[in-house]
Amino acid sequence: MLVLTLILVPLAAGLVLLCLKPDLPRKILVSGVTLAVCCGSVALALLPTPLNLGDLPLNQHGINLGMLLVEIAMSLFILYVGVRAKNPLIVVLTLAQAGLMVWFELTAGAHLEVAQNLFVDKFSVIMALINGIVGGGICIYALGYMREYHEVAHRDVADRRPLFFALLFIFMGAMFGLIFANNLVWLFLFWEITTLCSFLLIGYTQTEEAKRNALRALVMNLAGGLAFALAIVWFYRQAGSIELQILIASKQSLALLPAALLCFAGITKSAQLPFSSWLLGAMVAPTPVSALLHSSTMVKAGVYLVLRMAPSVAGTKVGMMVALVGAVTFVVGSLAAITTSEAKRVLAWSTVANLGLIVLCGGIGTYEAVWAGVLLIIFHAVAKCLLFLCVGVIEHKLHSRDIESMAGLIVSMPRVSVMMQIGMAGMFLAPFGMLISKWAVLKAVVDAYPMLSVFIAFGSAATLFFWVKWMGKLLEVVEPHKRIEKELELGESIALHGLSVATFLACLLFPLISTYFIAPYVAEVYFHSAALPDGDIIGRGNTIIMTIMMAMVMLFPITFINYGRGVRVTDAYLGGANLHSSTLFVGSANSVQNVTIGNYYLHNILSEAWLSRWGVVGSAALLLVMFVMACL
Amino acid sequence: MNPWIRLLIYLVAAPIVGGLLAGWDRRISARMQSRQGPPIFQPFYDVLKLMQKENVVVRRSQNYYIFFFLLLAIFTGGLFFGGADLLLVIFALTLAAIFFVLGAYKASSPYSFIGAERELIQMMAYEPMVLLTAIGMYMVTKSFAVNEIASHPTLLVLALPGIFLGFLFTLEIKFRKSPFDLSCSHHAHQELVSGITTEFSGRTLAMIEIAHWYESVFLLGWVYLFFASIPALGIAVSLLVFVLIILVDNVFARLKWQTVLKSAWVVAAVLGFGNILILSLLR
Fold first, then answer.
1. How far, in Å, CA of A113 to CA of B196, rounded?
2. Cα–Cα distance, A299 to A305 (Å, whole number)
3. In the β-sheet with A577-578, what is the strand arrangement from edge to edge?
């Protein structure tokens, strides 16, 4: 019952919000539903899995028919969009996949025997927690953010907040559906709902750029959708089943082509090269949308599917190709993030890169790799969401999302600045979250395909560079800054504090998360038992050392107790006589010189356009090889 | 030997050995330049004197970062000599370096800023090779644990010649020696004053020195690992490598950061990856 509630409550709330104009009831409804969803997902986590969902009244033909109708309605809407935008690709893709599904439903629909339409295992629980808590945090944040967005920052944009919040919740509901679905047709429906929602959210501001980027996202995700539909039909014809669990448990020879198609769908949705451009374009939307797409939903749906397919592709050439796509994306994304100073773009590239790592894990498909991949999903969701929401706040206050303008943030917006530091530490720094997973990835890769480790070595060096220079920018104080009053609205404050604590706890409690959620899932899938053969992936001793290190780093703020004691403060050395400041000095011929400092972006050896062009070419070739391998 | 005893010896002996190495460095460099050079113990005298100097800062919090740099530099070597996981050692090393860089950023002075920026580039340059070194060792010994690598019966360098050479290349960067002394240098007459250390003085500068001593010992310890099955050879080669680094320092002029980054990555790709490729093909 709980599972159904989790899916249906956000969907219903979305529909109600669509016709709710005034601010106050919206606030109450959004907060209430968010709270309910958070509690629901936590309650779900406390239940033993796998849940017995057999006795739910879900096997009626009526439900399937209803879903078909929803699907047809969505296809008609997308067709209308495609025709109006004069985009033949959208029309063709929609017709192809809708035609395929309707034909499938009409010819095979009557004989479809599905034992379980929904299922819940540890992996779904983890995804549900992320979706409920992180996604919920974003909805709460959006309350305050969108008011400021329309009333202060962007008066020119038409206020369509009812639609906005409705879409947020429908998105969330669809995501719940996606992670609990076992019936592939259902999974496909929810998949398409997320595609449609993201299209509408990216185009929210209705500027030319937004419309263009929304259409691009739609095209790419429709291509993934078509692959998904093909996978369903193919697998049904081969194996006579449309259940995810059966697909995963099938022999590799039977499941390889559908698995390859589903991996392709996952790669489009998780914005891997060659499809990364839709996620980068999605930044035109208001910040909560970016946060939602990047952390709890959408791209996570993509990697969820790829990780689900991991056992089916493990050790095959197809898996190798998927892993290579991920590896190439990781390196290209990390290098591209160095070249740009726009905060959201850096975050977007870093998302693309990190998802590349997860896809790499999925492609390798060994139990170690899957363990690392799930861990990556968790840490990435929490830390990236925190970072996006912080950048959103900063953008409103500074009216700029340029990293160079964030100097002195530690003085002007201390709280947000510290939260960003926490998020960044969570993203790349030992001993925090992502690094633990990166470590596990490295071990998994070395055991499976040692050659791929070179991608990780170069990619993580690049990651280091762009994060540290950003951290440095936040710390640096060149000129005196005034503290900005009222840094955060109430909703924003709740979400940001919550996420900071969540990042912190996820890092601190990762051994527990591993023991109670990830390890049982991995063991269940790979060894059909409840425990891993060799216990822990990175070893108990190492976990202890990590914890010691973490405790050490967390002591860092305590050293500030004797802040400023026993030191003499002076101006910085400028190579001339300072003019009572750290930025002005007397240079040659008594001229007064001003000092400005800015980060390196390595433009003379790296170019974003070049990187993405060759990244797209390379990864497209890899995908082609993957399909050839799968068909052989 | 019990790892805890090894750890204890490291904690006590490393600064002494490291300081002596620094003294020899200055002495040998001086001889190469036909000078007399300072006494061997000069680095200790320097640090003792720095301890007594006034602590002048630009930003009040900058010194805390350096304290953590020292703490983590010691911790890194401790993990290494305690026999922990090599990857974990690398991560701790990186974390230490990041604290150093953040301290320089915090100081917010143009020279320390450029130093920090260049230090980051250097880190980006050496990081891939360092990781590949650990991976290469794992492929030969089937373990990431330093104590198991050290007790491996064969001479690692025989299986990892490319990686060893690549590692020597990165050592040059890690020791901040010419031609890779971009971020800060002990030599006078240069465009970035004292680079990353420009705004640090007194006790804090002494901490940076001590951290470098610990780091040198740890890095030479890693060189030893390549020859660990014959301990005497290992120690001899480590010392020889140290002399080689000093020689290179005195022979070469400083390179531009573009060249450093590109050359280091090419070395990592050719020597490091090439070695791993051959190993995995032979497997």
1. 68
2. 10
3. A577-578, A584-586, A592-594
Q: How confident is the model at residue A535 (pLDDT cuts 50, 70, 90)?
A: low
pLDDT at A581: 74
Count of pairs with CB atoms under 8 A, one residue in A, one in B: 180
Question: Is A573 in CB contact (< 8 Å) with chain B?
Answer: yes
d(CA A131, CA B238): 53
Question: Please, what is the end-to-end C-alpha distance for chain A in angstroms?
Answer: 44
CA distance B105 to B191: 18
For residue A183, list its beta bridge partners. Answer: A243
Q: Decide if A572 and B272 are in contact by the 8 Å CB cutoff.
A: no
E strands, chain B, in order:
56-57
pLDDT of residue B230: 92
pLDDT per position as a tens digit, A337-351: 999 888 999 999 999
Q: Which of A117, A112, A170 is nearest to A139 (CA)?
A: A170
Q: Is B55 on the interface with A (CB under 8 A)?
A: yes
What are A510-521's pLDDT values in tens digits?
888 888 888 888
- Taking Cα atoms as reference points, which of B84, B87, B101, B67 lies closest to residue B10? B84
Q: What is the pLDDT of residues B53-73, one digit of tens each?
A: 888 888 888 888 999 999 999
- Mean pLDDT confidence for A206-235: 90
The answer to whether B187 and B181 have CB atoms below 8 angstroms apart is yes
Give the pLDDT of residue A3.
78
User: Per residue in B80-105, pLDDT tens?
Assistant: 998 888 988 999 999 999 999 999 99
Q: In chain A, what are the domain boundaries?
A: 2-57+75-558+606-631
Q: What are A73's two structure tokens?
A: 């309605």
Q: Are A569 and B276 a contacting pair at CB < 8 A?
A: no
Cα A570 to Cα B58: distance, rounded to the nearest angstrom: 5
Stronger pLDDT, B2 or B239, i.e. the higher one: B239
For A399: left if phi > 0, alpha if psi spans -120 to 50, otherwise beta; the answer is left
Tell me the backbone φ, ψ of residue A585, rounded to 5 degrees: -145, 160
Q: Is A554 on the interface with B (CB under 8 A)?
A: no
CA dihedral B74, B75, B77, B83 (to 10 degrees): 150
Chain B residue with Cα closest to A448: B280
pLDDT (0 to 100) of residue B134: 93
Pairing of strands A592-594, A568-569: unpaired
Ramachandran class of A86: left when φ > 0, alpha when ψ lies in -120 to 50, beta otherwise:
left
